[in-house]
Each structure stands twice: as C-alpha cells, then as structure tokens.
Amino acid sequence: MKNTMIDYENLALLNEPFHDEYISSLNSVLKSGWYILGENVKKFETEFASYNNAANCIGVASGLDAITLSIAAFQFEIGSEIIVPSNTYVATILSVLQNYMKPVLVEPLIDTYNIDPAKIEASITKKTKAIVVVHLYGKSCCMDPIIALCKKYDLKLIEDCAQSHGAAYKNKNTGTFGDFGAFSFYPTKNLGALGDAGAVVCNDNDLAKTIRRLRNYGSDKKYYNELVGYNSRLDEIQAAFLSIKLKRLDEINKHKRNLASIYLNNLKGDYIKPVVDKDYFDVYHIFNIRHPKRDELKEYLLKNNIKTEIHYPVSPNNQTALKEMFKNQQFPISEEIHKTTLSLPISFFHTEDDVYRVIEVMNGF
Ligand SMILES: Cc1ncc(COP(=O)(O)O)c(C=O)c1O
C-alpha cells in the first residue's frame, strides 16, 4: 500500500460515482435531438441559481467567458480600468484585456491569498469602472470593505468564483455579493463538467437579459440581434452532467473540508497552512501550504509517490504575454506566494488514509 502513487487529481476516479447517471442522461440528450440551449440548460440554470440563492443563472461556455461577458455587459469605455488581484489565475486578467480595458493589479493578503481590501483604494482613479475579486483556492474574499468601496466610488463588482462553488462569507454564497458571479465548471473544479463550461449568476433581471443576449450572438429572438454578441453557450450535454453533480456539490465540499481539517490538525513543522476564520465557509478547491523550500519539498513528495501541484508557478506580471504591461511595477507578495506555494491532494476521490499518508511523509521532511 505504502508504495502506490497518490495522484494530485484523477478525473476518471473523481467522476466514477456519477457514471451511471451520466450515461443515462447522455442517452436522453442523444434521443432528444436537441443539443444547444434546450431544457437541460434551463433546468441547470434554475437549479444553480437556487443553490446560490440568486435570481438568475445564465450558462456560458467557460469560466473565462463568464468573466468576459460580465465585463462586456456594462459597455464601459475602451481603456477603462478594472481592478483585479495580482496573484489570480491569468484568465481573470485576460477577461479584462479581451474587453480592451486596462487590468490594474492589486496585491493580496499574504495569509488569505485574496485581494487586500486596504490596498484597493490607492489604485482607484477616475478611469476605474469595476473591481473583479477572485475567491481564490475556495475561500471568499473579505467582502464588507470591498462592497463599501464599490459604493463609495460607484464601481461595479464582479466575482470570479471559478474556485469557490458553495463557498460563503457571513453565510452568503460567493457570487451573490456583486453585480455578477462568474463560475467555471472546468473538470477539476468542485462542480466540474466533462469539458469546458461556465455560468454567470446575477440578481438583476436586466443584467441577466444582457448576458443571455451576449452569449448568443447578441440575440434572444432567432435571427434578430440587439447587441454585438459572442457564441458562448453552455451545451445541453454538459448542463445535464452538471445537474447530476450539483445534487452532490455539498457532499463534495464536505469531503474536501474534512480532508482539509485533517491536514490542518496534523501537519507539523514549518508549513504555513490556510487560515480558518468563523466568517468564512471555505470549500478548498485547492489546499495549499507554503514552505521556503517548496521545490525541494515537491521533489521529496514525488520520490515518496505523492504528486502535488503549484498554483501557480509564475505570477501574471511575469508571464511572457503580460510582462511588458507591468514592467515598472512590483508585486512582492504575489511573487512570494508563487515561489513558496504547494497544493496538496484533496480531490473527491482521495480518502482520509491518503491524506494521513501525505501528512506522515510531510512531517518527515
Ligand atoms: C480563478 C480562475 N478564474 C478563471 C478561470 C477560467 O475558467 P475556465 O478554465 O473555465 O475558462 C479559472 C480556471 O481555471 C480560474 O481558476
């Protein structure tokens, strides 16, 4: 047993409990002959809106598109500034650039890895139109001061919830604090599809209508176009799969929270562990620790048949595609996180025994 490999992720194993239901739903979609914007998409949208206690949900093609369309819905002037955290996954920044706007990077807090509310105000200018917060790793951002800033400066608020399905702050789900909650259902996410998929959650009915049009060539009536839109639709097969998995999202989150608490209670030594606070319901899309000898630790774990990941090895400001844009700016906190962070196995298929074995090996490092 000791020598079997513990994978970081294994999507076939993760999805095994859903196979029978997936196959029967796939058969129904095949027989229905309706593959785009049909009953399955409508059903999932209703269920996911209700899960989040939101008025509307609009299925789209990916998490990146969910953020891109959310920004596009406001039709800000080209060149407007949008605030985003400096240590996010690159997609958040791409969504701003794809709208021909300027991403303004704000550093995170070193203990929560989420945008530092105290650092936002200094970055607000006359051109700032919105803040895109990212609930990274499955922990909500500290929303009260961010909402206050949005009110004070009349800014729109978009939440990147790609990693925070079911996570909450003061008992309210992420994705429901701002104008839009943008979700990814990329297969590895807590609520993952079997391909690319995403959704936008929002309470305002007019904004919801705009997203519905934007995802479908700017149209809500066939061959009549109100807006310059995109083709970014959630498809029927993925929607059917998502409805099946959504029924067990709370169980998935509970499983991950249990594995996280085992790590939190038993990892000893120099590991900087995720912070826990009563106002935050964390869903641990990623369970990361930080360690000054991260690369050595990763090697050592691999030698002991434990696979880990790094989220993320390169900070956005140092990416080849972006570094020219941010060349005169410093992001020491992001860079420290990128240098020291390591993500440990915490999938739905991992057992408590897997996690105890990871801990035993890590405590011997
Ligand atoms: C924080 C964050 N934002 C956006 C995305 C983009 O989602 P997708 O891969 O569905 O486009 C991801 C996905 O990896 C993410 O982690």
Look at the structure and name the CATH superfamily of the largest domain.
Answer: Type I PLP-dependent aspartate aminotransferase-like (Major domain)
Helix share bin: 25-40%
Number of strands: 12
What binds here, in terms of ligands, is: pyridoxal-5'-phosphate
- Could you say what the CATH architecture of the largest domain is? 3-Layer(aba) Sandwich
Oligomer status: single chain
Rg from C-alpha positions? 20 Å
Give the uncertain stretches in residue-range form: none
Overall pLDDT metric: 97
Q: Assign an overall shape.
A: globular
Q: How many distinct domains?
A: 2
- Strand arrangement across the biggest beta sheet: 1-9-8-5-4-2-3
Q: How many strands, which pairing sense, and closed or not: the largest β-sheet? A: 7 strands, mixed
Query: SSE order, as H and E?
Result: HHHEHEHEHEHEEEEEHHHEEHHEH
Briefly note the structural class of the backbone.
alpha/beta
Q: Please indicate the percent range of residues in DSSP E strands (runs of 2 or more).
A: 5-15%
Instruction: Report how far apart the termini are.
Output: 20 Å
Question: What is the level 1 CATH name of the largest domain?
Answer: Alpha Beta
DSSP summary: helix tally: 13
Features:
Aspartate Aminotransferase, domain 1, three-stranded antiparallel β-sheet, alpha/beta, 37% helix, 14% strand, Aspartate Aminotransferase, domain 2, 2 domains, binds pyridoxal-5'-phosphate, seven-stranded mixed β-sheet, 365 residues
